[in-house]
Specification:
About 35% of the residues lie in helices and about 15% in strands. It is of the alpha+beta class. The strands form 3 sheets. Strands 5, 6, 7 and 8 form a 4-stranded antiparallel β-sheet that branches. The longest helix is centred in the N-terminal third of the chain and has 25 residues, at about 1-25. It starts with a helix and ends with a strand. The chain binds protoporphyrin IX containing FE.
Length: about 190
């Protein structure tokens, strides 16, 4: 239970925040838009959950009986991997699935799973991401990606969709203030 809570409750949220900040900083105008309208941040978090969610896969499943899913027949006792990432970019379900669209109606993604195992911490994760994004945008009005430290890099993981490092340059609130970080801060997580 502890292992589940540590991985389910920590890695997922850390990487959701990292993925969100990357997309905000590389999409021209997005940071300004969210700063001007912080009420749009929850919709932004839903879009990141959908198209840059922090889990590629749900936990493993086994079929207990033969089943047909779409045009696929699956026997009993088969091992099943469910790709949340593919489902969340399914063009049959989402118009322009690769685009972050703050006006996209409803939250129809399955980043938090579905059914009886739907994520226990979904509300907490949404709150953490919304709080982190709004505080970072408000505190660092000139935050930008810092190419000097290299490009953001993705972890090579079948399960976690997150960055190994996200070099970010923070800037002072006004030109006269200096940020006490040594030029840049790194949001990083273990590979
Ligand atoms: C961005 C953050 C998160 C994402 C993307 C996420 C995603 C998921 C997904 C996809 C499942 C279902 C797995 C399956 O059906 O195989 C799940 C289950 C679960 N999550 Fe999360 N999760 C997040 C944050 C959290 C947090 C913050 C907690 C706890 C503090 C948490 C606790 C759990 C637990 C206990 C389950 C198992 C529920 C069950 O099997 O009944 N998760 N999560």
């Amino acid at each position: 239970m502890l292992l589940l809570l540590l991985i389910a409750g920590h890695e997922t949220t850390v990487n959701l925040i990292g993925n969100s900040i990357l997309e905000i900083l590389r999409e021209p105008g997005m940071a300004e838009r969210l700063r001007a309208d912080p009420e749009a941040i929850p919709a932004y978090v839903e879009e990141i959950l959908r198209c840059q969610g922090s889990l590629h896969m749900a936990t493993a499943r086994y079929t207990t009986a033969p089943i047909t899913l779409g045009d696929q027949d699956i026997d009993a006792d088969e091992f099943i991997l469910i790709s949340l990432a593919a489902a969340n970019r399914d063009p049959a379900r989402f118009d322009e699935p690769d685009r972050i669209d703050l006006e996209r109606p409803g939250s129809r993604h399955i980043a938090f799973g579905h059914g009886i195992h739907h994520c226990l911490g979904a509300a907490l994760a949404r709150m953490e991401a919304t709080t982190a994004i709004s505080r970072l945008l408000a505190k660092f009005p000139k935050m930008s990606l810092d190419g000097e430290f290299g490009d953001p890099t993705w972890r090579k993981s079948l399960l976690i969709h997150g960055l190994t490092s996200l070099p970010v340059r923070l800037a002072a609130r006004t030109d006269s203030q200096t940020v006490s970080f040594a030029d840049a801060a790194r949001f990083s997580s273990r590979a």
